[in-house]
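Tutorial, part two.
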Amino acid sequence: MLRFNEEEQAKQFSRAYSLEVLRDYPDIELYISKMTEQELPEERFSEEKFPGVTKKNMKAIRQMLNHRADLLKDKRRAMFRRWSYGVEKIGESGKPMDWLNKHENEFESGAIAKKNDQSLHKARHFLFGRLEERLKALDANHNLVQITTELASYKAQNDQKSYIGIIALDGNRMGEMFHRLDSIEDMKEFSDEIERIYSDAVAGALYHYAVRHNKTLQVTPVLMSGDDICLVTQAEDALDIAADILKQLQGLSLEEKAKNVLEKAMNAVSGQQSYLTACAGVAIVKVTYPFFDAIKMAEKLCHQAKEALHRSAENKAVAASFIDWDIVQGQVSAQTAYEKRVARARIHEKYRIRPLRVDQDAGIDHGVYSYHAFRDLVTELHSMMNKQNSNEQDVSSSFLEKIKKQLYSGWESYSLLFELDQTGSGDKLSQLVKKHFAQDHQSVDMDSDIGRIRTKYGAIIERNARDNCDEYRYVLNDVLETMAFIYGKEAVVHGKQ
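Running the prediction step on this input gives:
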């Protein structure tokens, strides 16, 4: 949103800017709306304090600009571009060979390829620049975080399968906060501060994660625009980095510098929001997985995390950060999950605890599960399994494999597996889940229906008063599915254990 002193200046800028964009990125659809302040009626201040003084409502101006841009988009939807009139051979660029033959000279001279390379370099430099500057300020010499543009760099050197994590992150209630601002000065100051906080949060999360684990971290920024973030990292790093970005946002927005800028917008929204929150979606896929589909999946997971926020009990978690994720083992994600196929048969059995809330200390609060409790459980389970001597392991790998096979068979089969266990693994897992998710409910009698939450065999049991029955939530399902894609080593600080 730009303001010019004269209408002719705005027209000249629109022509020059749109021409420059279309030259470098001919496939981009660009919409520019314009209006003058004279088109908006003036609003008067209080006549008692400021008799005869008027103001321009910048909020209304912005709404009208958006409306006019939407009208342009509606017109564009009724148009189409015809590349050909039949079925014909398509070249590598996606355009018909007839079109390519007409531009053969440009291809042979390298003019089109050179132009595309220059445009791509310009876009990457703009995208990476802010992140690189912040990373250098944090890590001037060690280069712990390396920005890469090649997905091939995430491939494992051995014959193991290579996975990447796509992180999509979006701020909560940003539009609502922005609409509360009246002046263009407040809008600009708010936008600049959001840009700074989110960029600092990404850089800080990446750097501190690399320091904690004493490892070189690779990252590919896909989108960094205000509160919209999309990153690619190695699969084992993605979940913790996404959660840490959400934590960084909270901490940075509580600093005095940020509070002075954000306070007006945050106080205007309901829920007494005192710090910035966001939601994140993480798609864990093979390196060879279709990249665009992986990004759309991460965005969908981010949207599901936002839905979890709105479903929170009595809207008490309005100011909250949630994270959701999914792991795709194959090349196609269109398959229906087995969990959905059995949902109708056992509506009182839940196989997921995610999305999880990042800014929550209690393991469970009003039906919302904590990411940090989940993460601590995974860390402790890793430690139990990674003892050098298999005879000393607290939890056997074979028992975990049996759990995976019995999870969707119903509570009877699942509980029987724990009852017949003679290795002690079942009891250790039960205590682990109770320790991290039911620390506030340990006094509840397991053999009665008293209390809202009970734990048994690593599952959370909640009483459904409406249907007069128990509901089972299998905590271990998300844990066992995800722990192979979470960095298992204990955190280190400056190279020391």
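Residues 49-54, 332-336, 441-451, 490-497 have pLDDT under 50 and may be disordered. In part three we will examine how such features are distributed along the chain.
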